[in-house]
Amino acid sequence: MAAKALHFDVGDYVVYPKHGVGRVIELQKQEIAGMQLELYVLRFEKERMTLRVPTNKAESVGMRKLSSDKTMREAMETLKGKPKVKRTMWSRRAQEYEAKINSGDLVSIAEVVRDLFRADDQPEQSYSERQIFEGATSRLARELAAMEQIDEPAAQEKILDILRKAAAIYNKDKVPA
Fold first, then answer.
1. 104 close to 60: Cβ distance less than 8 angstroms
2. Measured between alpha carbons, how far is residue 101 from residues 27, 50, 95 in Å?
3. DSSP 27-91
4. What would you report as the CA-atom Rg of the chain, rounded to the nearest whole angstrom?
5. C-alpha–C-alpha distance, residues 131 and 43, integer Å
6. What tens digit of pLDDT does each residue of 47-93 get?
């Protein structure tokens, strides 16, 4: 095998693109269909889910270590940016948002959070917009919490604080006449 497979140790936090932040709780060897497989056993506390990933497939499914500080800073800067509101059909936007969230890319997730955030003085979100926003925010907050060793609600509050400050800046020019 030419490519070096990713290696994670028991206790490491990892990001699995479709599920977010989990923790390696065990390395297992199992015989499946007559083949010996080495598996990472991942635990996702929030979903109360355990996932087994063959060690040789970890890279191809997009599993990765927590983001670097630089990537996290970039994601936080993204939150401060001006929201990009596309005028396409909601179903198309929703698909794009879901694809960004499931990519596992922190900056893409931050873009979804920024674009779907609504300040208290802005129009209500639809139910599906709120669901996607909450999912993306939770995904971002879990990685931030794991990196800064704080709990998820504290990480979520930090994210919302950045969004509220950015909204105050970008909504000043929309003062009603």
1. no
2. 27, 20, 10
3. EEEEEETTEEEEEEEEEETTTTEEEEEEGGGTTTTT-EEPPPHHHHHHHHHHHHSPP----S-HH
4. 19
5. 23
6. 899 999 999 989 888 899 999 999 999 999 999 999 988 888 999 99
Q: Which residue shows structure tokens 């509050």?
A: 157
Phi-psi label, residue 142: left if phi above 0, alpha if psi -120 to 50, beta otherwise: alpha
Compare 22 and 172 and report the one with higher pLDDT.
Answer: 22
Q: Does the structure show a pLDDT above 70 at 5?
A: no
Distance in angstroms (rounded) separating the CA atoms of residues 40 and 10? 9
- Residue written as tokens 């497939």? 57
Q: How many CA within 13 A on the CB side of residue 117? A: 29
Express each pLDDT in 133-158 by its tens digit.
Answer: 999 999 999 999 999 999 999 999 99
Order of strands across the sheet with 13-16? Answer: 49-54, 35-44, 20-32, 13-16, 64-65
Q: Which helix (H) or strand (E) holds 26?
A: strand 20-32
What is the CB neighbour count within 10 angstroms for residue 114?
23
- Residue 138 sits at the vertex; the CA angle it makes with 109 and 127, to the nearest 5 degrees, is 90
pLDDT(177) > 60: no
Looking up tokens 């709120």 gives 130
